[in-house]
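@channel anyone free to eyeball this complex?
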Amino acid sequence: MPDIFVANKKGESKVRTSSDSKKAFHKIELPKNHAENPREIFFANKKENEEIILFLRGHIATNFPWIVISSFLIIFPLLLFFFFNFVESPFPFISGAFIVIFTLLYYLAVFAYAFINFMKWFYNTLIITTLGVVDIDYSDLIYHDVAITKLNLIEDVKYNKAGFFRSFFNFGDLFIQTAGGKENLEALGIPNPAHAAHIIANSIGKGDGSG
Amino acid sequence: MQRILSQTQSEKETEVDNFNFLTQFINIPLLLKATALLLILMYAIFAFVIFNQVRTMNKIIYIPSSSRILIVISVIHLLLSISLFLAAVVIL
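replying in thread with the prediction:
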């Protein structure tokens, strides 16, 4: 007799095969600067019933300055080597081994510069959830700040988008004013700030009642 | 004209003499090696700080597809800096 309903065995769904983990490993995507209702993002202090409505980080165009600087820093030693082919070296006592080691160290430092700037962009995020707003600021290698505000504590939200590039690429700054002495939240250089402001404005007063 | 040339030559000789006098007291290759090793060691510590920071930030916010790659990159960066230090010890 065919089975109409077969109950799942306990723990069967939680078992991950090696092919599953391979699939997960191969699923590499470029980091997005905004996402609506993302399910795969986790943050500290996330409650079980809390769902992310909007996830924001700076527009990709905000990365242009450090990409340009890094590109120049990559090319610079090549120009220097080219120059010293024609001119006598002012440091004759420096051996070839030193030059190789210093060049490698220089390129590692350039990589670190680019990587830290990427991290600044990657970790500077604003998350709007069903219960509140989470602002993660990562401004330096040794400094980060996480601010969480409940939706019922938000008093005002505003955004500005000034300048040619900001208008062209449609990104700007978002400011969230909170009640009383609570810290105000800000998200700088986010894509489509009007949409984010609209979502937050619609959520004001909702959420958990306990302040 | 010849006087000016001889004057320039004597100035150059004085510079070379000064340099030789300095190198008698300071071992320049050794000084350079010590400086390079110190710099690379400091850089390796800095690379470890970056790795630690990525780990800390991944605990605060975790995006499965990208956070894992950042950890891998920071580990590679740390290993490269340690390798550079070891290479510098051997080569220099």
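from a first look: Residues 63-119 of chain A form one domain.
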